[in-house]
Amino acid sequence: MPTKQVDTKEGLSKEFKFLLAGTPVNIDIVSPAGQKGRFRTIFIGYLPEQFILIQFPDSNKLGNFGQYFVQGSEVVVRGLVEGHEASVIAFSSTIKQTLSTPTKMMALNFPDKMIIHNLRSTKRVLTELIASIKIKEKSWVAQLTDVSLTGCHVEVREGEQDELVEGETITIIMSVDGDDESQILLKARICNAKNSEDVLKLGCQFISEQDEQVEKIVRLALLAEK
Q1: Does the model's pTM come out above 0.90?
Q2: Is 63 left (phi over 0), alpha (psi -120 to 50) or beta?
Q3: Which of 134, 158, 164, 208 has the fewest beta carbons closer than 10 A?
Q4: Residue-wise pLDDT tens for the chain (226 aa)?
Q5: DSSP code of 216?
């Protein structure tokens, strides 16, 4: 199944069976000034065609965004789903009500549509994932601008990049949820390198037999989509 959009509420009710209670999800909210906040929380459950329950994000991490989690605010939710048909589910909704018992949570209006990404059919995902790349003992801070199951494009802004040339093998290192102990390490070969306005742009091909690590990065990119 390729990436698809589901539009009817009846269809949505069927698709939500893949998003299990207790699944971690990312929730995005935008302030009136246009600043976007992204927070990790938990999917609790839903009543078909009526509402969705999501645990309130950790108040210690909300900062000024806490004031925007109120009735009528628009949020975007993304989460990994179970089952062979789908990999990542994403939908936009509005806050119907906030609740304080039995735990602090949000009731979201049941969405009118959702996007379902099949990991294996995902061709390329635009992203802004931060990583570091390493050759031997030297490393650079980098940003992945897109990623697929076969490779990625990387931008490096730091100086002294003479080692980053076509044919070199690099290690891409990325932490999961900001946890340095849960890192993804992935080997890639630089296929092309181009300087553009003080930025070195690399086109990289993943080296074979790293399917599990590659899929983790693609999932991260899908979860972090704009």
Answers
A1: no
A2: left
A3: 208
A4: 457 788 877 777 777 777 888 988 999 999 988 889 999 999 999 998 899 999 999 888 898 898 999 999 999 999 887 664 557 889 999 999 999 888 899 999 999 898 888 777 777 888 889 999 999 888 999 999 999 889 999 999 876 778 889 999 999 999 876 555 578 999 999 999 998 878 899 999 999 888 888 888 888 888 877 5
A5: H
Q: Give the whole-angstrom CA distance, residue 99 versus residue 132.
A: 40
Report the number of secondary-structure helices (H) and strands (E) in the chain: 3, 14
CA distances to 76, 77, 108, 162 from 104, in Å: 19, 17, 13, 52
Of 100, 12, 104, nearest to 51 by C-alpha is 12
Q: How far is CA 186 from CA 75, 147, 169, in A?
A: 32, 13, 10
